[in-house]
UniProtKB/TrEMBL annotation:
The keyword Iron is assigned to this record: no
GO molecular function: cobalamin binding; metal ion binding; methionine synthase activity
Pfam families named in the record: B12-binding (PF02310), B12-binding_2 (PF02607)
CDD domains listed in its UniProt record: corrinoid_protein_B12-BD
Gene3D superfamilies the UniProt entry points to: Cobalamin-binding domain, Methionine synthase domain
Organism: Candidatus Pullilachnospira stercoravium
Protein name: Corrinoid protein
B12-binding N-terminal domain mapped to chain residues: 1-88
Gene Ontology cellular component annotations, sorted alphabetically: cytosol
The keyword Metal-binding is assigned to this record: yes
Transmembrane segments: none
Keywords: Cobalt, Metal-binding
Residue intervals of the B12-binding domain: 88-214
Amino acid sequence: MAIIQEISEYLQKGRAKNVKALVQQALDEGMDPKQILNEGLLDGMMIIGGKFKRNEIFVPEVLVAARALNAGLNILEPKLVEVGNEPVGRAVVGTVRGDLHDIGKNLVVMMLKGAGFEICDMGVDVAPEAFIDKAEEIHADVICMSALLTTTMTNMEDVITELKNRNLRDKYIVMVGGAPVNDSFAQQIGADYYTPDAATAAEVAKKAVLEKAE
Ligand code: B1M
Protein backbone atom coordinates (compact mmCIF):
# COMPACT_ATOMS: atom_id res chain seq x y z
CA MET A 1 0.00 0.00 0.00
CA ALA A 2 1.26 3.49 -0.83
CA ILE A 3 2.55 5.33 2.22
CA ILE A 4 0.13 8.22 1.69
CA GLN A 5 -2.82 5.83 1.82
CA GLU A 6 -1.40 4.15 4.91
CA ILE A 7 -1.24 7.53 6.64
CA SER A 8 -4.91 8.14 5.83
CA GLU A 9 -5.94 4.68 7.02
CA TYR A 10 -3.96 4.74 10.28
CA LEU A 11 -5.38 8.20 10.96
CA GLN A 12 -8.90 6.86 10.53
CA LYS A 13 -8.08 4.12 13.04
CA GLY A 14 -6.75 6.75 15.46
CA ARG A 15 -3.27 5.22 15.53
CA ALA A 16 -1.27 8.33 16.39
CA LYS A 17 2.08 6.55 16.78
CA ASN A 18 1.81 4.92 13.35
CA VAL A 19 0.71 8.18 11.74
CA LYS A 20 3.65 9.99 13.31
CA ALA A 21 6.14 7.36 12.13
CA LEU A 22 4.70 7.20 8.61
CA VAL A 23 4.67 10.99 8.20
CA GLN A 24 8.32 11.04 9.25
CA GLN A 25 9.09 8.19 6.84
CA ALA A 26 7.31 10.02 3.99
CA LEU A 27 9.35 13.16 4.69
CA ASP A 28 12.56 11.13 4.85
CA GLU A 29 11.68 9.67 1.45
CA GLY A 30 11.48 13.21 0.09
CA MET A 31 7.72 13.47 -0.28
CA ASP A 32 6.22 16.96 -0.57
CA PRO A 33 4.88 18.04 2.88
CA LYS A 34 1.78 19.54 1.23
CA GLN A 35 1.01 16.22 -0.45
CA ILE A 36 1.36 14.41 2.89
CA LEU A 37 -0.96 16.99 4.45
CA ASN A 38 -3.64 17.05 1.77
CA GLU A 39 -3.68 13.48 0.45
CA GLY A 40 -2.72 11.66 3.66
CA LEU A 41 -3.84 13.53 6.78
CA LEU A 42 -6.71 15.69 5.50
CA ASP A 43 -8.05 12.97 3.22
CA GLY A 44 -8.23 10.64 6.24
CA MET A 45 -10.00 13.29 8.28
CA MET A 46 -12.52 13.94 5.49
CA ILE A 47 -13.44 10.25 5.52
CA ILE A 48 -13.86 10.42 9.31
CA GLY A 49 -16.05 13.54 8.84
CA GLY A 50 -18.32 11.70 6.43
CA LYS A 51 -18.71 8.71 8.77
CA PHE A 52 -19.41 11.04 11.71
CA LYS A 53 -22.12 12.78 9.69
CA ARG A 54 -23.76 9.47 8.79
CA ASN A 55 -23.65 8.36 12.45
CA GLU A 56 -21.36 5.45 11.54
CA ILE A 57 -18.87 6.62 14.18
CA PHE A 58 -19.19 8.88 17.22
CA VAL A 59 -17.28 11.57 19.15
CA PRO A 60 -14.68 9.24 20.77
CA GLU A 61 -13.60 7.82 17.39
CA VAL A 62 -13.46 11.32 15.92
CA LEU A 63 -11.35 12.48 18.86
CA VAL A 64 -8.77 9.72 18.47
CA ALA A 65 -8.58 10.40 14.74
CA ALA A 66 -8.11 14.11 15.50
CA ARG A 67 -5.32 13.22 17.93
CA ALA A 68 -3.63 11.13 15.24
CA LEU A 69 -4.00 14.04 12.80
CA ASN A 70 -2.40 16.40 15.29
CA ALA A 71 0.47 13.93 15.84
CA GLY A 72 1.12 13.98 12.09
CA LEU A 73 0.81 17.76 11.93
CA ASN A 74 3.43 18.15 14.67
CA ILE A 75 5.92 16.28 12.50
CA LEU A 76 4.97 18.27 9.40
CA GLU A 77 4.94 21.69 11.03
CA PRO A 78 8.66 22.49 10.72
CA LYS A 79 8.55 21.61 7.03
CA LEU A 80 5.41 23.62 6.37
CA VAL A 81 6.67 26.71 8.16
CA GLU A 82 10.19 26.76 6.75
CA VAL A 83 8.82 27.99 3.40
CA GLY A 84 8.79 31.68 4.40
CA ASN A 85 11.25 33.79 6.39
CA GLU A 86 10.77 37.59 6.34
CA PRO A 87 8.40 38.72 9.14
CA VAL A 88 5.54 40.46 7.41
CA GLY A 89 3.20 41.21 10.27
CA ARG A 90 1.49 40.00 13.42
CA ALA A 91 -1.71 38.01 13.65
CA VAL A 92 -4.05 36.89 16.39
CA VAL A 93 -5.66 33.56 15.53
CA GLY A 94 -8.39 31.66 17.33
CA THR A 95 -11.54 29.57 17.14
CA VAL A 96 -14.57 31.61 18.11
CA ARG A 97 -16.60 31.44 21.29
CA GLY A 98 -18.46 28.18 21.88
CA ASP A 99 -16.41 26.25 19.32
CA LEU A 100 -13.79 23.66 20.30
CA HIS A 101 -12.59 22.61 16.84
CA ASP A 102 -8.93 23.50 16.47
CA ILE A 103 -7.44 21.47 13.63
CA GLY A 104 -8.20 23.96 10.85
CA LYS A 105 -7.19 26.82 13.11
CA ASN A 106 -3.89 25.08 13.84
CA LEU A 107 -3.29 24.78 10.11
CA VAL A 108 -3.96 28.49 9.67
CA VAL A 109 -1.40 29.18 12.42
CA MET A 110 1.17 26.99 10.68
CA MET A 111 0.62 28.52 7.24
CA LEU A 112 0.75 32.07 8.60
CA LYS A 113 4.02 31.25 10.37
CA GLY A 114 5.28 29.85 7.09
CA ALA A 115 4.32 33.11 5.38
CA GLY A 116 6.43 35.01 7.90
CA PHE A 117 3.85 36.18 10.43
CA GLU A 118 4.37 36.39 14.16
CA ILE A 119 1.39 34.62 15.66
CA CYS A 120 -0.55 34.73 18.87
CA ASP A 121 -2.55 31.51 18.96
CA MET A 122 -5.53 32.14 21.24
CA GLY A 123 -6.73 28.54 21.13
CA VAL A 124 -10.41 27.66 21.07
CA ASP A 125 -13.61 29.11 22.54
CA VAL A 126 -12.20 32.62 22.33
CA ALA A 127 -14.39 35.48 23.56
CA PRO A 128 -14.73 38.52 21.25
CA GLU A 129 -13.11 40.82 23.82
CA ALA A 130 -10.15 38.46 24.15
CA PHE A 131 -9.43 38.58 20.40
CA ILE A 132 -9.37 42.36 20.50
CA ASP A 133 -7.51 42.79 23.79
CA LYS A 134 -4.74 40.53 22.51
CA ALA A 135 -4.63 42.26 19.11
CA GLU A 136 -4.19 45.59 20.87
CA GLU A 137 -1.58 44.17 23.24
CA ILE A 138 0.68 42.70 20.55
CA HIS A 139 0.00 45.44 17.92
CA ALA A 140 -1.42 42.91 15.52
CA ASP A 141 -2.21 43.62 11.88
CA VAL A 142 -4.65 40.76 11.36
CA ILE A 143 -7.37 39.04 13.38
CA CYS A 144 -8.10 35.52 12.11
CA MET A 145 -11.20 33.65 13.24
CA SER A 146 -12.12 30.06 12.61
CA ALA A 147 -15.53 28.39 13.17
CA LEU A 148 -16.69 24.87 12.38
CA LEU A 149 -20.26 24.97 13.62
CA THR A 150 -23.21 26.75 12.07
CA THR A 151 -24.18 27.71 15.62
CA THR A 152 -20.83 29.41 16.36
CA MET A 153 -20.00 31.06 13.03
CA THR A 154 -22.40 33.84 14.03
CA ASN A 155 -20.08 34.67 16.94
CA MET A 156 -17.59 36.00 14.40
CA GLU A 157 -19.84 39.00 13.96
CA ASP A 158 -19.57 39.79 17.70
CA VAL A 159 -15.85 40.42 17.25
CA ILE A 160 -16.53 42.85 14.42
CA THR A 161 -19.26 44.59 16.41
CA GLU A 162 -16.93 44.91 19.39
CA LEU A 163 -14.21 46.35 17.12
CA LYS A 164 -16.71 48.94 15.90
CA ASN A 165 -17.79 49.72 19.47
CA ARG A 166 -14.17 50.44 20.34
CA ASN A 167 -13.61 52.48 17.13
CA LEU A 168 -10.97 49.97 16.06
CA ARG A 169 -12.62 48.39 13.02
CA ASP A 170 -10.31 49.96 10.44
CA LYS A 171 -7.19 49.22 12.43
CA TYR A 172 -7.32 45.47 11.75
CA ILE A 173 -7.62 43.18 8.77
CA VAL A 174 -10.33 40.70 9.77
CA MET A 175 -10.23 37.26 8.19
CA VAL A 176 -12.70 34.41 8.63
CA GLY A 177 -12.81 30.77 7.62
CA GLY A 178 -13.96 27.28 8.53
CA ALA A 179 -16.19 24.65 6.93
CA PRO A 180 -19.58 26.43 7.26
CA VAL A 181 -18.23 29.90 6.41
CA ASN A 182 -18.34 31.34 2.90
CA ASP A 183 -17.72 34.56 1.06
CA SER A 184 -21.26 35.89 1.27
CA PHE A 185 -21.35 35.26 5.02
CA ALA A 186 -18.04 37.09 5.40
CA GLN A 187 -19.45 40.06 3.49
CA GLN A 188 -22.67 39.97 5.47
CA ILE A 189 -20.86 40.28 8.81
CA GLY A 190 -18.38 42.85 7.52
CA ALA A 191 -15.19 40.76 7.56
CA ASP A 192 -12.44 41.78 5.16
CA TYR A 193 -11.64 38.35 3.75
CA TYR A 194 -12.96 34.80 3.64
CA THR A 195 -10.60 32.11 2.43
CA PRO A 196 -11.48 28.44 1.95
CA ASP A 197 -8.23 26.96 3.24
CA ALA A 198 -5.27 27.73 5.45
CA ALA A 199 -2.72 28.12 2.66
CA THR A 200 -4.90 30.70 0.89
CA ALA A 201 -5.49 32.46 4.22
CA ALA A 202 -1.74 32.93 4.61
CA GLU A 203 -1.35 34.22 1.04
CA VAL A 204 -4.23 36.65 1.37
CA ALA A 205 -3.10 37.86 4.83
CA LYS A 206 0.37 38.61 3.51
CA LYS A 207 -0.95 40.47 0.47
CA ALA A 208 -3.43 42.45 2.59
CA VAL A 209 -0.79 43.52 5.11
CA LEU A 210 1.64 44.58 2.39
CA GLU A 211 -1.12 46.51 0.57
CA LYS A 212 -2.19 48.26 3.78
CA ALA A 213 1.39 49.31 4.47
CA GLU A 214 1.74 50.98 1.03
CO1 B1M B 1 -17.22 18.27 15.20
N1 B1M B 1 -18.57 18.77 13.91
N2 B1M B 1 -18.49 18.49 16.65
N3 B1M B 1 -15.84 17.52 16.33
N4 B1M B 1 -16.31 17.77 13.62
C1 B1M B 1 -18.15 18.91 12.51
C2 B1M B 1 -17.69 20.33 12.23
C3 B1M B 1 -19.47 18.51 11.73
C4 B1M B 1 -19.58 19.15 10.33
C5 B1M B 1 -19.58 16.97 11.69
C6 B1M B 1 -20.79 16.50 10.94
O1 B1M B 1 -21.85 16.45 11.48
N5 B1M B 1 -20.60 16.15 9.71
C7 B1M B 1 -20.57 19.03 12.72
C8 B1M B 1 -21.03 20.46 12.52
C9 B1M B 1 -22.43 20.55 11.95
C10 B1M B 1 -22.86 21.94 11.78
O2 B1M B 1 -22.59 22.83 12.53
N6 B1M B 1 -23.59 22.14 10.71
C11 B1M B 1 -19.88 18.81 14.05
C12 B1M B 1 -20.56 18.69 15.29
C13 B1M B 1 -22.07 18.68 15.23
C14 B1M B 1 -19.87 18.59 16.52
C15 B1M B 1 -20.48 18.49 17.93
C16 B1M B 1 -21.70 19.40 18.20
C17 B1M B 1 -20.79 16.99 18.12
C18 B1M B 1 -21.42 16.62 19.45
O3 B1M B 1 -20.91 16.93 20.49
N7 B1M B 1 -22.55 15.97 19.32
C19 B1M B 1 -19.27 18.88 18.83
C20 B1M B 1 -19.16 20.39 19.09
C21 B1M B 1 -18.13 20.74 20.11
C22 B1M B 1 -17.90 22.25 20.14
O4 B1M B 1 -17.11 22.74 19.35
N8 B1M B 1 -18.56 22.95 21.03
C23 B1M B 1 -18.15 18.40 17.97
C24 B1M B 1 -16.97 17.91 18.47
C25 B1M B 1 -15.92 17.45 17.70
C26 B1M B 1 -14.66 16.77 18.28
C27 B1M B 1 -14.23 17.34 19.60
C28 B1M B 1 -15.01 15.31 18.44
C29 B1M B 1 -13.67 16.93 17.09
C30 B1M B 1 -12.78 18.19 17.18
C31 B1M B 1 -11.37 17.88 17.61
C32 B1M B 1 -10.48 19.07 17.44
O5 B1M B 1 -10.69 19.98 16.64
N9 B1M B 1 -9.44 19.05 18.23
C33 B1M B 1 -14.60 17.13 15.90
C34 B1M B 1 -14.23 16.97 14.54
C35 B1M B 1 -12.80 16.50 14.31
C36 B1M B 1 -15.09 17.23 13.46
C37 B1M B 1 -14.89 16.93 11.97
C38 B1M B 1 -15.09 15.43 11.78
C39 B1M B 1 -13.56 17.31 11.34
C40 B1M B 1 -13.18 18.77 11.53
C41 B1M B 1 -11.76 18.96 11.12
O6 B1M B 1 -10.88 19.07 11.96
N10 B1M B 1 -11.52 18.93 9.80
C42 B1M B 1 -16.03 17.81 11.32
C43 B1M B 1 -16.57 17.23 10.02
C44 B1M B 1 -15.98 17.92 8.81
O7 B1M B 1 -15.55 19.07 8.85
N11 B1M B 1 -16.01 17.23 7.71
C45 B1M B 1 -16.93 18.08 12.47
C46 B1M B 1 -10.16 19.06 9.25
C47 B1M B 1 -9.77 20.56 9.24
C48 B1M B 1 -8.40 20.71 8.62
O8 B1M B 1 -10.72 21.22 8.45
O9 B1M B 1 -11.35 22.85 10.31
O10 B1M B 1 -12.63 22.81 8.11
P1 B1M B 1 -11.35 22.64 8.87
O11 B1M B 1 -10.28 23.69 8.28
C49 B1M B 1 -10.09 23.84 6.90
C50 B1M B 1 -10.92 24.99 6.31
O12 B1M B 1 -12.21 25.10 6.85
C51 B1M B 1 -10.03 26.18 6.53
O13 B1M B 1 -8.70 25.68 6.51
C52 B1M B 1 -8.65 24.27 6.71
C53 B1M B 1 -8.04 23.63 5.45
O14 B1M B 1 -6.82 24.18 5.15
N12 B1M B 1 -10.17 27.01 7.71
C54 B1M B 1 -9.86 28.33 7.62
C55 B1M B 1 -10.48 26.75 8.98
N13 B1M B 1 -10.43 27.84 9.72
C56 B1M B 1 -10.04 28.85 8.91
C57 B1M B 1 -9.82 30.21 9.16
C58 B1M B 1 -9.41 31.02 8.08
C59 B1M B 1 -9.27 30.47 6.81
C60 B1M B 1 -9.48 29.14 6.57
O15 B1M B 1 -9.17 32.34 8.18
C61 B1M B 1 -9.05 32.95 9.38
